[in-house]
Amino acid sequence: MSDPIEAAIFETIAKANPKGVDGKSVEPAEVAKVLQPEQWQRMLPKVRATALGLMRQGKLTITKKGKVVDPNDFKGVTRLRLPTEAETAAALAALPPKANDEFED
Q1: Which InterPro entries does this entry report, sorted A to Z (predicted)?
Q2: Would you say the pTM of this structure is higher than 0.70?
Q3: What is the mean pLDDT of residues 39-65?
Q4: Domains detected in the chain
Q5: Closest C-alpha to 80, from 2, 3, 33, 16
Q6: pLDDT band at 96 (very low <50, low <70, confident <90, very high)
């Protein structure tokens, strides 16, 4: 994982939920504060954008008032947590199919 924002997201969740079993969530602002404590507000849009990308890959879940948001239509106060197996499967199923690099005759 080379992206420092991704790393900060997963590290912050791991600190909040060390056993990874109870579905604890964190606010995107908590992650931004880890990355830039003095000017965390500037990092917040980047944290949210990275979280959205991770959600679309099935690696993260974004919730609002405890319910999973639609990644294409949400705004407001959200929280980040690790996805359940069902949420990961649904996210991966929604991805467009990968083009095959090799052509078969």
Answers
A1: DUF3253, WH-like_DNA-bd_sf, WH_DNA-bd_sf
A2: yes
A3: 94
A4: 4-88 (1.10.10.10)
A5: 16
A6: confident
